[in-house]
Amino acid sequence: MEHIQNQMPKISVIVPYYKEKNLEKNIEEIKRFIEGEVIPSEGEKGKGYALYQGILQSKEDFIVFIDADLQIHPKEIKTFLKIMELYDADAVIGNKKHSYGNLNYSFKRRILSNAYNYLVRKLFGFDLRDTQCGLKLFKKIPLFSIIEKIKTFGFGFDLELLVSLKENNYRI
Questions:
Q1: Which among 26, 38, 12 has a CA at the least distance from the CA of 73?
Q2: pLDDT tens digits, residue range 11-23?
Q3: How far is it between the farthest Cα atoms of the chain?
Q4: Model pTM?
Q5: Distance CA 161, CA 133 (A)
Q6: Could you write out the DSSP letters of every residue in the chain?
Q7: Could you read off the pLDDT of 57-107 as tens digits, one per residue?
Q8: CB-based burial of residue 7 (10 Å sphere; 0-12 exposed, 13-18 middle, 19+ buried)?
């Protein structure tokens, strides 16, 4: 992945959306920080289905999922690429729950989120704090090697994708 150090590689950025008010503006913001394509993918059938359809349309060697509200800024994509290279990873998952994060979750949402992530860690052996984070980076080949095995197209899509990558010995 030497080319990451020298220049930004071409990336397919999939933006799942459903009735997003600022979609066009946010897509333009994403384009400022990448080389490649932005694939808006309508999520009326669920976020997972929108991501799945976007993956099938992607043309580049790196694929990014970013939520349409840009709660995590697209400038972080470059950081994710550096992390991918540094750790020779096949996927890099964001984490809004780090010590520098600025989350304004309600008490109920915080409890549900923590419980969900605790169960994910215990059931699947992940050392991840936020599997539902709105920014993820993947190498295309590992993602395409498992995508047809995915059966969940709603909320659990991200988790099933990560579990399948882990089961196939890809580095997250």
A1: 26
A2: 999 999 998 889 9
A3: 45
A4: 0.86
A5: 13
A6: -HHHHHSPPEEEEEEEESS-TTHHHHHHHHHTT-EEEEEEEE-TT-HHHHHHHHHHH--SSEEEEE-TT-SS-TTHHHHHHHHHHHHT-SEEE--TTSTT------HHHHHHHHHHHHHHHHHH----S-TT-SEEEEEHHHHHHHGGG----STTHHHHHHHHHHHTT---
A7: 999 999 999 999 998 999 999 999 999 999 999 999 987 655 445 556 688
A8: exposed
Q: Which residues contact 141 (CB under 8 A, 6 or more apart)?
A: 61
Closest of 63, 70, 10 to residue 35, by C-alpha: 10
Select from 139, 128, 143, 59 the least CA-distant residue to 97: 128
Q: How many residues does the chain have?
A: 172
Contact 62, 12 (CB under 8 A): yes
- Which class for 161: exposed (0-12), middle (13-18), buried (19 or more C-beta within 10 A)? buried
* Amino acid type, 122: K
